Amino acid sequence: MNMTFEKHRSIDIVRLVGALASNNAPAMNKQLQNLIRGGQNKIIVDLSGVDFMDASGLSTLVRSCERVRASGGDLLLLKVRPSIETLLSMTRLDEMFRIFNDELAAVNTLQ
Question: Is 34 within 8 Å of 66 (Cβ atoms)?
Fold first, then answer.
């Protein structure tokens, strides 16, 4: 999986490409935790390039979202593919995450 990081004012946008699975979820978790420990509490995770996600990937997103919200911020999901959206729905995590298809709308929500 490839991760890139962008800053849009006070918002961090994490763009993922590839599979978010047990073999790379720990690396993503570490990167997200570094952002959160650094005081970042407005994060958008762009999943448009994620073609597969397993329980480890879901767990990473859930833990990161909980930590960000505990610090008074939020973690939003952006451009979730239908297969990943089905997974979120089946696990009822679609009720936990706010999911956006439009990046500008997600950014405006966090400002």
Answer: no
**Separation CA 54–CA 40 (nearest Å):** 26
Q: What is the pLDDT of residues 47-95, one digit of tens each?
A: 999 999 999 999 999 999 999 999 999 999 999 999 999 999 999 999 9
Chain position carrying tokens 């706010």: 98
DSSP 3-63: EEEEEETTEEEEEEEEEESTTTHHHHHHHHHHHHHTT--EEEEEEEEEEEE-HHHHHHHHH
CB-CB contact of 27 with 60 (8 Å): no
Q: What is the DSSP letter of 85?
A: H
Supply the pLDDT for residue 92. Answer: 96
Q: Which domains does the chain have, with CATH numbers?
A: 2-110 (3.30.750.24)
pLDDT tens-digit readout, 17-53? 999 999 999 999 999 999 999 999 999 999 999 999 9
